[in-house]
Amino acid sequence: MLTIRQAAETDCPLIRRMAEEVFPATYRGILTPAQLNYMMEWMYSEASLREQFRAGHAWFIASSDGEPCGYLSVERQGEALFHLQKIYVLPRFQGIGAGAFLFRHAVEYIRSVHPAPCLMELNVNRRNPALRFYERMGMRRLREGDFPIGDGYYMNDYIMGLEIR
Asked: Where is the N-acetyltransferase domain (predicted)?
């Protein structure tokens, strides 16, 4: 059975452990090892995670039969704009519906804090096979860009969007 709970700043070590498993598995064939390491520290260091909590990112941890299986974070970026910053399912839990479960929860969360129509955006690497998942969930490609993230690295992404009503 899948369950979800809102994470607290004290969950940073758990989020980091899950990211250490899922992030390389997701991007191994897309990014160089050096960029993978850089991005892990940039997004998932203890300091970075704590800063994300303090900046108001809402984090959630999904579990399957009591075992943590994935996570997501949502950031409000404007009056009617939210960004799905992260949504990942550990490899051994992929295929059980956890990704759709997390995605639906992100939408429900946004509706709970903003009942008026709004837009949820997501950056996804242009070579990431998860593009098809996001399209199945109703997202559409809005634009693309190459975004510098430091150390000479770029995120080569589509920005996808979902109108939430």
From this structure: 2-165
